Amino acid sequence: MQNIYDNKEFFDDYINMRNKEINANNLIEKPIFQSLLPSFKDKKILDLGCGFGDLCKFAENDGARKVVGIDISKNMIDKAKKINYGEKISYLNLPMEKINEINEKFDFVLSSLAFHYVENFDKLIKNIKNLLVPNGYLIFSQEHPVATAFIPPKNKKIDSKIDIENKRYYLLSDYNNNGKRSIHWNIDGVVKYHRNFTAIINTLSENNFIIEKLVESYADEEAIKLEPKYKYQNDRPYFLFIKAKLA
Amino acid sequence: MQNIYDNKEFFDDYINMRNKEINANNLIEKPIFQSLLPSFKDKKILDLGCGFGDLCKFAENDGARKVVGIDISKNMIDKAKKINYGEKISYLNLPMEKINEINEKFDFVLSSLAFHYVENFDKLIKNIKNLLVPNGYLIFSQEHPVATAFIPPKNKKIDSKIDIENKRYYLLSDYNNNGKRSIHWNIDGVVKYHRNFTAIINTLSENNFIIEKLVESYADEEAIKLEPKYKYQNDRPYFLFIKAKLA
Fold first, then answer.
1. Mean of pLDDT values over B72-91
2. Which of A165, A216, A247 sits opposite B198 (nearest CB)?
3. Counts for chain B of helices (H) and strands (E), in that order
4. pLDDT for position B156
5. Tens digit of pLDDT for each residue in B27-39?
6. pTM recorded for the entire structure
């Protein structure tokens, strides 16, 4: 897994974006993610790719007994310890690929917008299964398959989208071509992994997860009023959310 | 539900298309659908939107104890009785909206490429649930959400897809706008219903179905060799298949 958040240029740009109140995380991702969460009272929570700890702090405030947040980026963990310190929260600088090193069980494994950085999804889900109590929940968001499908062409004249008469067209070539995507996001060469629904759903199912709820993101009227460009998020969803229970 | 298959012009065009051996049903849909089917030996099968009975005959040949095929189109049922007659098969001229009139239970409910004609998906799934034995299976295919999303514009200059430098772009506006789509397919005014993954998966989950397998269609090399235009089916899937078990 690429440790892009410890690249100073990227990290500065990212924090700058997140510091603005009007961003897709605050207006679109967070409200949907929180709508999927039950009460955390007396529960044990593991947050994968916790970033600067917003979700861990939310879980503690909601009454969690213990919260563990992990992130590959030391920058993020340092920031989390400062701005989202909590008596019941431990932050670990650990990549998601190494969660098999954690020796305890949790009631909930959460992950907000981080799974698309992981190459081996099957291994990740198997590791999560081992960290959950029976009937425990995995609740995660990631970039939506129709948003990650596009492979940037070497011929820079070709764009991933085209606007014609106020309608937006998306290049969906390679939707069924799961794998690495190297894209420009703040800096060049940010590595993500595209997986279609077939890969996501079947990996969960094969590992005994029952999908209880799935949500594809949309921008509501308020979000579009605050940031008109979010109307394009309704063309095709940008985030995917899944709540799955270990059978 | 529109009874388009009893429109003579549509039916003739449709049968003409299906009579060709090289079509998307034979090359793409059928092989994937059949790969999802377990043995039908001694099982009771209900096929919703059975058309001219290919799948019913397949189930009988595979050892099913009893097969019931229903279809809204009398044309189709008449043809099924002729070309796919079977001692263990009953064909009924019944729309899918009325399966609550059937008073028996089945081990498998199947449906190939018909659910996108049904307006009320929740009612359909509730009715199917009542027709299944505990741990019974629903196995269906339908048009894929990215293929049904498009709303044909009144301004005919706008197309649903654009080819640029050998890449194809799709208009995905209204992906999150579930509902009626009136399209041209053989004739004008064919009515289908678009549902995104959110709607499909949550309706199944809310009705106690566990999704065991999901497949998005693709064209393999052989299919593309027989019909080069199928390469575009790999840009974005055209069919969606779901195998779900009643908990």
1. 97
2. A216
3. 9, 11
4. 65
5. 899 999 999 999 9
6. 0.93
The Cα A207–Cα A244 span in angstroms is 11
Chain B residue closest in CA terms to A169: B171
- Written as six digits, the tokens of A116 are 């698309």
A61, A71 Cβ separation under 8 angstroms: no
A4-147+195-246 maps to which CATH number? 3.40.50.150
Enter the ipTM: 0.93
B residues 74..113 contacting A (CB < 8 A): none
- Cα separation, B91 vs B60, in Å, equals 13
> Residue B196: pLDDT above 70?
yes
Q: What is the rounded CA–CA span in Å between residue A96 and residue A53?
A: 15
Q: Which of A65, A59, A58, A57 is nearest to A83 (CA)?
A: A57
pLDDT of A74 higher than 90: yes
Cα separation, B74 vs B69, in Å, equals: 12
Q: Which residue has the higher pLDDT, B119 or A154?
A: B119
Of A170, A176, A214, the CB nearest to B170: A170
CATH of domain B4-246: 3.40.50.150
The domain locations on chain B are 4-246
Chain A contact present for B155, CB below 8 A: yes
